[in-house]
Structures are given as structure tokens and as C-alpha cells.
Amino acid sequence: MKHVLRIVTLLTMFGGAVTAQSPQKGKASFALPYEKFTLANGLEVVLHEDHSDPIIAVATLMHVGSSREKPGKTGFAHFFEHMSFNDSENAPQGANRKLIPEWGGRRNGGTWSDGTIYYEVVPKDAFDKILWIDSDRLGYMINTVTKEALEAEKQVVKNEKRENVDNVPYGYTDEIIRTNLYPADHPYHWTVIGSLPDLQAATLDDVKEFYEMYYGANNATLVIAGDIDIKETKDKVQRWFGEIRKGPEVKPMKPMPVKLDQVKSFYFEDNFARLPELRLVFPTVENYHRDVYALDILSELLSGSRKSPLYRIIVEQKKQAPGVNSSQDGEELAGEFVFRVRANAGTSLDDVKASIEEGLALFEKEGFTDNDLQRVKAEQETSLYNGIGTVLSKAFTLANANEFIGDPAYIIKSAAMTQAVTREDIMRVYNQYIKGKPYLMTSVVPKGQTNLVVKGATPATVWQEQIVAGVQNENVTRGGEADTLKTKTKYDRSEPAFGELPLFKMQPIWDAKLNNGLSIIGTENSEIPLVTFDITIPGGHALNPADKAGVANLMAQLMMQGTAKRTPAELEEAIGLLGSSITIQCANEEIRITGGCLARNFEATFALAQEMLLEPRWDVAEYERLKKALETSLKGNEANATAIANRVFIKLIYGPNHIFSLPVMGTLQTTANITLDDLKSYYASNFSPTGAAFHIAGAVDKSRVVKTITSLEKQWPAKPVKSAASVAPQPAPAGNVYFVDFPDAKQSVILAGRIALSATDPNSDKLNFANEILGGGSSGKLFQTLRVEKGYTYGAYSFVNATKAPAPFMVSTSVRSNATLPSLQIIQSILADYGKNFSAQDVEVTKNKVLKASTLSYESLGSKLGALREISKYNRSKKFIEESQQALVKMTLADFKSVIGQYMSEPDMIYLIVGDKASQLKEVTQLKGKVIVLDNQGNPVGEGSN
């Protein structure tokens, strides 16, 4: 949940004329108005009105994280978050995970060192329902916890750890840092997710003790943001939350920064890593300390641009890595300033360490310019607005600032503190926390490559799970609802009715066309002073030669490295001084130049994007750097089970003659053949306004946009371009099961699917609708069975990719290794029964879910831009979302069954497993169908026997 805290950091970094205030104060250039009150039970409530969309966000922040845990019971705060989502006295079992998506809402939670947050966004008509289910979770869940539910949820949390820590490269680095940076009695000595043995040992008494101590109303902040009426909402909050118990006082913890007497150096041989990584961690100060603002700016000055000293030494001069990162990572009790370099294959980390030291010496010698400081502050202004672009992000901001500093409007003070940071402050914190100070260093290297470790490093110790075959030792069930008496309350706590249904209406959309053929489509939205736009050029990966797959992607990256008029550093600075961002990305069927900026800087930002589009630099040094970085990235992907699964699966789905059987970024084999001339040739052949489109959403009107981009008419003349060749996919035989060995994998990645249809097919929307009950989020059958009922996985979903070419329908999950076989059997069974068991009730649930979710789906500027892209790419109408909803309303049960039978039939599926062959292959051979073993490039190496 560091991303939640980071929203606050971004909001507190802008040093301009920005304020957030309570309604009682005067007007300002920017306002994040709120009203705050406290219930008799101590619950602090913050309300924010935003009537721009008929949606409401609710965030409940509990001031308890892993820092409140006891040694031997680590991971408990996060585990309790999971338990809280299960049952409560007045809501049906599993309602939180199942019902909220069916109401058209989104929900989740997260835990970090210092807090736990629960959050939802729902259509306005479900406001009463979300207050009911949220308040019941907070105040009336503990009596429903059963031993069976406890044991089942342990498996889910253990799966989350396996998926995000144990089964990924560098996953143990956080544990190594925490264990050795913080003393054994420090609350940050252990990781947030904790250890598997500690999780397994958790008891019902532990759950109840934790609840009684930390889950009182007086240890929480409740934020409600969105389309609400303040007075009415106050009454609702009093009704639903006012009777929740007040817990014991939770005494605040004082900052506990740590100091090191000497450098500590550790190394770890990572079974999954393919590249060496070095981290240097300097102890600093906690969040909201006055030095945090200078340290944040310092981190940007040291590594955040091409002009920064660490980039110049490590990336440009020494060519040791594709990039370098430094950051100030603060939490409630302490902070860390971290340098991280994931180096090129075979690079000595001693050499990388020497380069960091050389870069810091260069910083001490040269310092930084006024432009450098101006760039950082300009970028922070844009980050401010990006950080409050949705009602949920506003809720996060208000909740964190209220709970951790006692002032929802702390943004005012922090903005002023950032504005006050001087050159002297930056050098002072550098000298105080970095220069010549002891640090903790980690060298994480691929297994067997200890020659790359920094000399003198000590082996790090981490606990690692042993992989075994068979699920029998952990085959638990959640059990039924607890037989408990309901707590007596003054107010009726039965489920309230829906309010008035908010129908989604598409935003007004305008269009135009330049004489060179470039289409323009836009929508104006002035809620925040931001603009996002793109120039989309058809082609992308689809126009790559197969033997040089990756050309278009590499060309897109190179086009961001300067222009004919500007060096890479000069271009980066020009963009940064505007506080803007411009990226160029390649996808399967297009290349897209995307810009984001403050509305007042639209013209200047577009001018730079146009320069990048029309005047590429073709810098030889940058080409060589990017090609080396690509090689490093591709080698890194060989250590990622999910990346391997996706690469092999598209090869199985599309067959040998289709360009989509190769990744957009190419492979080590295809990219080795690419030359700079190949990039120039692709650009010359395929970049034309013919068929291209300009999309824009934000605080600019049509006349201003058209006036700005008419410069493209003469400077970008039309020319004919070829379309991608239409090649039919040749998928592998249906029913086969393919296995890729990923030795010692703690989880197996499972993909299943088949080629389905094009996004232009009349059945495209119908297939998406038909998928909702199967795998459309936490309410889907896959998630409910594999996670909620069985505890085999952290998540399981199904989806349909959207391209003009025929795209696959896919099922995706990662399960604990010893549950590979039963998980596959469950997937096969669900798919086999899905069509015949699809009911009239499923039809109604789907309609309700999809229709209401539309009110949430197009809130942000990015989502509005996405809708414009759909209109231009697939030739949809300006009312296509409303029309799609109308089509859904007309669908019958027979229509759903027909689509399911046509595109989701189990016998038509191909299955792929990426997992530990030694323990799982024999199990998998019990499945029906031929089991074929592949290498990690998708080439056959043998067959299993069944």
C-alpha cells in the first residue's frame, strides 16, 4: 500500500499557489473542500462533495499496520484485512467480494507498515448499501469468524505472498533490508506480509485480540467523497456508524528513525533473477518531517533525469544498466533513502557501487541548476492534479492526511514547505543523511553468480518454502456461516434498498478533420486543469517483419530520445519544465504518442510532441543504449513466470505464421537482427496521417485544439501506407495441455483459452457480457471457487482481448504449486458447465452489474481518452457505450447461451502451465488430453504420460 501513501507525497510536493481548505475558509485558486466531524464513538468523518459523476467513494482507514504486530505473529495486520472482507453479522457470507461488483462497484483494501485501508467506489444508487456493508464490516464482523474461515483465508494470504514475493525475482530483498536495517525490537523489522509459518500459526484468539485492540471506531478515519449531500450524509453516517463500539485508546507511536554505525553488506542468490541488482539504503526520517520535502527533491536531482549525475555515470558513461533510481521512502516511524540499480547481465556490482560513488562525487562538485529545481517543481504541480483526478484518489488523500497528521487539508502546509525548500536545504540533507554516512547494501544476483557480488558481503538468510506435490496437506474449506447471535442495535441493520438508478450518459464529443486526412476527436472536461491527448498511428507490431519482431517497439522508444533540434537531455528538460509528460508506445495494432500536461501548457506540450513525431533524431548512441537495455529486459523476463506464460501462450494461440505469436518487444533472437536502418525504414514506410487519429480530453475546447494542431496539415503530408497482412491464426490443437518448467516455482501460472473474435465483430460486446459471471472480477465463478471456496489462489479471472484481428478469450490464474492439478480440474469443470448452467438470474445479474459499472468506468481523463480511441479505431458511434447498454438490455438467456457455446466451449480450450516440473508434471498427466512439455520459448521438448 505504499502507492496510497505516495498519493499524499505527490500532493504535498507541489510548491505553487495551491490550497485545500474547509468550506468555512475563503476561496483559493485550487480547493479540495471538506467537512469534518467526529461521532460520539470517536470515529472521525471527512466528507467531500463532487457532483461531476453520479458515483461515491468510501474509504475507511484504520490506524494499524504491521508496526503494531508482535514478533512471531508477523503479517497479522494484513491477514486481518483479508478476514474483514469475509463475513459480518448482517451481511450474507462473502457479500463484500461478491455483491459490490454486482452493484456495479469496485472494492479492495490494502495494508502497509502503519495502516490498513478499505475502499469502494459505487454508483450513487448503492450509497446506502455501501454504508451498510462497510459499517457492518467495521463494527459487526468479529463474531462471525470461524475456525474454518480462518484456515481457508490463511491459504489465500499465503498464495498472495507466493505470487508477489516468493515466486518473483528480487522478491526477498525487502525482507533482507528490513531484517538487517531495523533492530529486532523495531516495528519495521519484519515485512508487511509476514512469514508463512507465522501466518499458519494464527488462531481465533489472535484474530479477536487484534480486533478488540485496534478495530474500535476511535482508531479510524472514514472519508466519503463524491455525489453526496453533506447534511443527508451526516445523518446516514450517524445511523450506520454511530452505534459501532469505541475501542481502547491506541497510543500514538513516536518516530523511531534508525542509525547505522557502519556499512552493512549482504548478498543473496536469487533462484528467479537473471540480472544482478544493487541497493544502497540510507536511514533518513519519517513522513511529514520537514526534511522529507528536500529529500524528495534531492532524489529527483540525483537520478531523475538525463542530466542527473547518476544517470550520466551509470547509464551513459559506464553503460552498466538501462537506468538508475533513487527515492525517499518515508513511513510513519522512519524513512529510507534508496539507490537501486538493476544492472546488465554479467555486470560486477562492485563496479556499480563505484559508479554510484562517482556519481555522488560529481553531484558534490557540480551541484544543480535553477532549471533543474524548476523542472522538479513543475512536474510536481502536474502530479498534484493527477493525484486527485478521481473521487477515490481524493478520498485517499483526505483519509491519509487526517489520520497521520490530523489535518485533511495538510496539503496547504506541505505545499508551502516544498515551496520553501532552498538550494541550501537540499545540500544540507545530502550532507546530513547521505554523504559519508553508513548504509545497508544488498547484492542480489542470479543463482551461481556470486562472482558479481560486492566484495566482503555476508550471505543473507531468508526463510523459503519447500515445494511438494499434492494438495492434501492444505485442502481446507471455508465452511458455512457462523451460528451467532446478532448484536442488538437501535437501528435496523438489514440490507437497504437501492436508490434512484443513475443512467450513464456519454460525455459530449466533438470531431474534426485536417486536410492531410488526420481525424480529430475530443471531449472537453474542466474538473481539473489538465489535458491528456494522443496521436494514434495504425500499424504497430502488426507491421513488423517476423524475423525482426520488435522493430516498431524499439523505434518508438528511440523516438523519445531527442529530436533533430534537441539532444535527449534538452528534450527531457523542455518537457519537464512544463511539468508535462510525452511517451511513445507500440502496441499490437498501433503506435501512440501520448501527452499529458497542465491545460495552460497544452500548446507548448503539443509542439514538442509534434517535433518528436516529425523530426526524429536517430541518435546512434541512444540506439545502442536502448538495444542493450532491451536485451537486459528480455533476459529479465526469462525469470518471470507470468512473462514466460504470456509469451508461450500467444505462440500456441496464434501459430507460427502470425506476427502476434511473437511479443511486441520481440525476443532475444529477433531483436538481435535489428539495425538502426530497420527503424528508419519502418518510420519511412508506415508513419502517415492517413488513417491516423488525434484524441484529446481535458480542459481545452474544440477551437483551441484545432487551432493548435493545424500546423500538422502542411508539415505532415499524407502518403499511402500498407495495411497489416491478414493472416489467419493457426492455434495448437484444442484439448492439449502444455507444461513449461519453472524450477522451484512456489506457484504455477495457468492460462487457458482459444481464438475468439475481432473487436469489430457484432458479437464482441455480447462475449464480454457473457464473461462477467464467469471471470469478470471477484464476483466471478472462477474467483469465487478457486480463491474464496478453495483458497488455491490469490485471484482468478477471464477476459477477451480487444484487437481488430481475431483475439483470444482467456482464463488466467496463479495457484500454489501443490494445487495445480485440482485447480486445472476446477477450471475445466466450470468451463464445461458454464453454458448449460447459465440461468435467467445470471442474465439479470450481468445486466445490473454492467449497466451500473458504466457510471464508474469513464470518470478519469484517461478513461475518457480510451473511449475516444475506441470510437476512432473501431468506427463506433459517439454514443457507442449507451448503444452497447441498450443491446445488453435486449439480450435474452438464449443469446447468452449461444455466445458461450460459440466462444467459451471447454473442448475448444488450450491449457498452459508454467510451474515446477519436478513436483507437478506427474500430477498434471492425470488430466484428459495430451500433456506436452515445452521449453520457455514454447518449443516441444517431450511429452508427459497419461
From TrEMBL:
Domain of life of the organism encoding this protein: Bacteria
Keyword check for rRNA-binding: no
Keyword Aminoacyl-tRNA synthetase belongs to the record: no
An example Gene Ontology molecular-function term: metal ion binding
Domain spans labelled Peptidase M16 C-terminal: 202-378, 673-849
Peptidase M16 N-terminal domain location: 45-166, 527-641
Pfam families named in the record: Peptidase_M16, Peptidase_M16_C
InterPro entries: Metalloenz_LuxS/M16, MPP/UQCRC_Complex, Pept_M16_N, Peptidase_M16_C
Keyword set, alphabetical order: Signal
Signal peptide: 1-20
Family: Belongs to the peptidase M16 family.
Name of the protein described by the UniProt record: Insulinase family protein
Natural source organism: Chryseosolibacter histidini
